[in-house]
């Protein structure tokens, strides 16, 4: 970073402060991760210098021969990783990957879709009224069964028969349990709808076979690359060869211009890393770590939504503790533990306050932490939340967090 320090010391200082924050703290935001040095190098490379509108072999600019090679590498690797027939690695984000499927399959202002409600675990881009998706389509949302706090496939099917949607979206950003993709596709088939699985959160687990992989089961898969998959921030789409042209046209020229080729190069690196045998151990450890921490939180009397976790995240219902998600997020932040407030099923507070807290283990697992460390982290969280006004405890936990975190590298090997 020596050039940056010379030319823009102000920004260099900001980045250095962020580096120290990441090294000395514990990143437990379920949608975040830490990339390898190799991913960072590709991301920060001269691949950013080029326009490459179009696709490999069919660009609108000259000089794209190496960009074709990089994009083909990314496409081939992600197809191999998930066993897919076709991949588009150009979406700038998961939301844009979702948008491409909607635009390729549904008519704006006319078609109906079904998806999981945001407050019960879904995502903004799945039809929230404040997102383009909720403004352009007639959206009908399903949630979880309020007793079990898990998906009720019978209820989704019944709703689909009534709504007769053009498309059914499954996948979530705050759902700690396994998702039955075959059940969703069957429900969609029954009403002649397409089924799209947004696997952004669990992509790394699906790639490693720790969570069922929806490839070959659902019509379309969308994802980000930067969550459990541990790559640069970005999106991608997988589908059958028969849908390739429609999907590619929807991404470019339909909704994006020039692809971010430095990001696509970094996606290629991420996919190669996920294809290595050690990645499966990493993905398995993410889940073991979440389950180890969940057990400690549960023992400490914190109520876990759905009773536990099958994946990388834990959702805590704080409503019986008399504190909000916002208060918990703030106090844990002071203790060096970064988490996010989150709505829970049966939520009665605003999304800026919430009654829940979402905790995830992908980033700390990337640093090499295992069940023993997770039990310590769970105990620290429980201790801070037991009395959020106790400054002495917050200071003490912060010291212990910093001492432990500083022993683990920021970049996965
Ligand atoms: N905002 C992301 C999350 O935190 O789950 C999803 O896009």
Write structural notes for this entry:
This protein folds into 2 domains: 40-275, Aspartate Aminotransferase, domain 2, CATH 3.40.640; 278-405, Aspartate Aminotransferase, domain 1. It is globular and about 60 Å long. It has 16 helices and 15 strands. The longest helix has 23 residues, at 277-299. It has a 7-stranded mixed β-sheet with strand order 4-10-9-8-7-5-6, sandwiched between helices. Strands 11-12-15-14 form a 4-stranded antiparallel β-sheet. The chain has helices at 2-7, 9-24, 37-43, 65-82, 94-105, 132-136, 153-163, 181-190, 203-207, 244-251, 261-275, 277-299, 325-334, 362-366, 371-386, 391-405, and strands at residues 26-27, 54-55, 58-59, 86-88, 112-116, 138-142, 167-170, 194-198, 220-224, 235-239, 303-304, 313-317, 337-338, 340-342, 356-360. The two termini are 20 Å apart. With 413 residues, it is α/β, with parallel strands linked by helices. The chain binds D-serine.
């Amino acid at each position: 970073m020596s050039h940056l320090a010379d030319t823009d010391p102000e920004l260099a200082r900001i980045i250095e402060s962020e580096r120290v924050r990441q090294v000395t703290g514990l990143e437990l935001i379920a949608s975040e991760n830490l990339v390898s040095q190799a991913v960072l190098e590709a991301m920060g490379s001269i691949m950013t210098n080029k326009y490459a509108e179009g696709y490999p072999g069919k660009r609108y600019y000259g000089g794209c021969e190496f960009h074709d090679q990089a994009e083909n590498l990314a496409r081939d690797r992600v197809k191999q990783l998930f066993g897919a027939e076709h991949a588009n690695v150009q979406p700038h984000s998961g939301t844009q990957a979702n948008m491409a499927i909607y635009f390729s399959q549904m008519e704006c202002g006319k078609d109906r879709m079904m998806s999981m409600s945001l407050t019960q675990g879904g995502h903004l881009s799945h039809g929230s009224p404040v997102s383009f998706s909720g403004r352009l389509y007639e959206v009908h949302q399903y949630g979880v069964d309020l007793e079990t706090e898990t998906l009720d496939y019978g209820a989704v099917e019944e709703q689909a028969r009534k709504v007769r949607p053009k498309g059914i979206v499954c996948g979530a950003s705050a759902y700690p349990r396994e998702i039955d993709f075959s059940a969703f596709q069957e429900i969609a088939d029954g009403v002649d709808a397409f089924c799209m699985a947004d696997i952004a959160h669990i992509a790394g687990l699906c790639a490693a076979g720790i969570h069922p992989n929806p490839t070959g089961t659902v019509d379309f898969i969308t994802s980000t690359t930067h969550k459990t998959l541990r790559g640069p921030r970005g999106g991608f789409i997988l589908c059958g060869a028969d849908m390739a042209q429609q999907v590619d046209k929807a991404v470019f020229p339909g909704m994006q211009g020039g692809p971010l080729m430095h990001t696509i190069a970094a996606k290629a690196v991420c996919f190669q890393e996920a294809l290595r045998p050690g990645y499966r151990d990493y993905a398995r450890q993410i889940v073991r770590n979440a389950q180890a921490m969940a057990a400690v939180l549960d023992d400490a009397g914190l109520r876990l939504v759905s009773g536990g976790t099958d994946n990388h995240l834990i959702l805590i219902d704080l409503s019986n503790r008399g504190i909000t998600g916002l208060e918990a997020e703030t106090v844990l932040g002071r203790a060096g533990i970064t988490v996010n407030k989150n709505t829970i099923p049966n939520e009665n507070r605003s999304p800026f306050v919430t009654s829940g807290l979402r905790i995830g283990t992908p980033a700390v697992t990337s640093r090499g932490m295992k069940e023993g460390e997770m039990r310590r982290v769970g105990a620290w969280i429980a201790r801070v939340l037991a009395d959020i006004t106790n400054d002495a405890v917050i200071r003490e936990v912060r010291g212990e967090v910093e001492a432990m975190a500083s022993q683990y590298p920021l970049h996965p090997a």
